[in-house]
Amino acid sequence: MNLPLQKRLLAATVASTLSATAWALDPMPVRVSEGLALTPTLKLGLGYDDNFRAVESGRDASWVSSIAPTLALGTDTGKVKLDLRYTANHELYRSSRKDDNTDHLLGLTADLQFDVRNRLRLAANYRKMEETASADQKVENDKYNSAGFNAGYTYGADNASGQIRLGLNHDRLRYDNGLDPISAKRLNADKERDSTAVTGAFLYRVTAKTRALAEARLTDHDYVSNTALDSRNTALLFGAEWDATAFTSGSARFGRERKDFDRAGKRDTSTGMWEVGITWAPLTYSSFSLNTRRGFDEGSDNADSIKTQSWTLSWKHDWSERLSSNLSYTNSNQDYDRPSNPREDTLDSVGIGLTYKMRRWLDVGVGYKHTENDSTQAGKSYKRNVVGVTVNASL
């Protein structure tokens, strides 16, 4: 989903703390009918957040408990694979009951294998969310819903010399906030938008497990009321994808991105762009991952756009068949395009988590994460610590 920038950063650096390591669960599906199975899971969490509004001064702290049941319904016939899942995540803030909220996430994916050369992947999702860490929390938490649809078509067999990939993506972002008592305008209405992206890529096999690629992207942002930010992003990238070779797998894309506004007087801009994701597994029970990105995000806090550069380094290690750990560090730099009032934020986050597999159907995890944002704008810097324990269960 094309969610607001700060929401994605907070989700990546803080919200995942209470489940800091990947599940080791081996759920047992319930047979509904021939070829159709239902898989229920349940995650319980209890944590302490010393700055759940992510503010510089006047910090609010609270114990936060959560319960998140998930239902997944799926089938796999070989040529058709369907997955429908729904999660409801209820959070209860012991020190601020007005911030209690329930997030809803619904997703459907369909993988269709027509023959060895033609494959189609379809995905649709809907989210209804509330964020305590938001720009307007002194009035009301950010409350929004987003809906998206994605289609990706691949032509070319897995072992073919060449492949063509085509993609179409549409995201719809709307806010459910009330009126600002000072301005009498609906909060966050200026951020509502529809974003449509089309992509095309050509891949050429250079070795048995490596493909070179060239990719073009075009994204159109259409704002509902703040039409001054209507714009088009174009990007041209070159790089490679590779399977497990010499203990590594991943992809790397490098190129340039340009943002052009529809309204005269807005400053068009461009930047170098990259997307890299690499996993190195020198041992079967230990792996290192590097993910880094540079490009444009949609503007917020009166910025026309935000140039973002981020990278995350993580280490996952299995100490035994039951005990695993995950250590991660994230650095992100956001340069707000505001000619009259420039702003630059640097966010650093470090987290550690342990997961113990008590049973096939039961995991227990503990985690800690420290996040620090350093901003050139007064009042936008903050520090945040989250510690917690989770219990993940299935049938």
UniProtKB/TrEMBL annotation:
Keyword Amino-acid biosynthesis belongs to the record: no
Residue stretches spanning the membrane: none
Keywords annotated in UniProt: Signal
Domain of life: Bacteria
Gene3D superfamilies cross-referenced by the UniProt entry: Porin (2.40.160.10)
Keyword Signal carried by entry: yes
Annotated signal peptide: 1-24
Protein's name in the database: Outer membrane beta-barrel protein
Organism this protein belongs to: Thauera mechernichensis
